[in-house]
């Protein structure tokens, strides 16, 4: 988390972090994640470690919630920690930041590809280059199995 500090909006850099959700404590359920992150207005950081011990995630300026359409702002970004921290910021090409329903959480999009997606059981996910962030795939194989996931609030 400390490496991400310089990449966060300046208004948030001194805010204390609070763990809202973790699979170790709350189980593997997208519905539970939505319930934990419902505090409106709080920025959130999604951290994922896959079964190959790769760490990556996303920052959202608001809460992660169910929605019928994409929401979020240009402050949203994806990141990965392969050998070093890589941050993928908004390209300005579209506004496909975050969208979530019962079965799927999607971050970034365009041309049918998502920068990061997670299934309703938080067991499986994927990452592909997308127009929103022009990101490298966050997980080397494209699709991955989740080992652990945390949602932090600011």
UniProtKB/TrEMBL annotation:
<protein>
    <submittedName>
        <fullName>TLDC2 protein</fullName>
    </submittedName>
</protein>
<feature type="domain" description="TLDc">
    <location>
        <begin position="1"/>
        <end position="154"/>
    </location>
</feature>
<dbReference type="InterPro" id="IPR006571">
    <property type="entry name" value="TLDc_dom"/>
</dbReference>
<dbReference type="GO" id="GO:0005634">
    <property type="term" value="C:nucleus"/>
</dbReference>
<dbReference type="Pfam" id="PF07534">
    <property type="entry name" value="TLD"/>
</dbReference>
<dbReference type="GO" id="GO:0006979">
    <property type="term" value="P:response to oxidative stress"/>
</dbReference>
